[in-house]
């Protein structure tokens, strides 16, 4: 499944440029502790986190994360969005909580 397939779903909104929506999503990881994500997430994962500061972009870029998904419509500041655009990391927002996101991703075959 590609990032573009996810943002076509209701409740998912792309916050960054659309130049990276063709990235493949191969798995899902959910965690808010950056060091734990760095140790356990895998390349191609869609990462669900409530963290919105710029460091999430650095972690996602380092691990080659396919996209960052921000649950519950948490605001993401423009510095983070601009950095994500520079690093070609899509950030997606949704009003769903993490469980709701997992359910949709599971239904989509992940």
TrEMBL record:
<dbReference type="InterPro" id="IPR010766">
    <property type="entry name" value="DRTGG"/>
</dbReference>
<dbReference type="Pfam" id="PF07085">
    <property type="entry name" value="DRTGG"/>
</dbReference>
<dbReference type="InterPro" id="IPR028979">
    <property type="entry name" value="Ser_kin/Pase_Hpr-like_N_sf"/>
</dbReference>
<protein>
    <submittedName>
        <fullName>AraC family transcriptional regulator</fullName>
    </submittedName>
</protein>
<feature type="domain" description="DRTGG">
    <location>
        <begin position="33"/>
        <end position="104"/>
    </location>
</feature>
């Amino acid at each position: 499944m590609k990032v573009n397939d996810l943002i076509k779903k209701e409740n998912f909104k792309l916050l960054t440029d659309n130049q990276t929506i063709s990235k493949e999503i191969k798995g899902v990881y959910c965690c808010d502790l950056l060091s734990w994500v760095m140790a356990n997430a895998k390349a191609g994962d869609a990462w669900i986190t409530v963290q919105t500061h710029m460091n999430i972009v650095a972690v996602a870029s380092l691990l080659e994360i396919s996209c960052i998904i921000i649950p519950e419509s948490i605001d993401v500041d423009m510095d983070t969005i601009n950095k994500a655009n520079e690093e070609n990391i899509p950030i997606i927002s949704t009003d769903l909580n993490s469980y709701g996101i997992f359910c949709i991703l599971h239904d989509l075959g992940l």
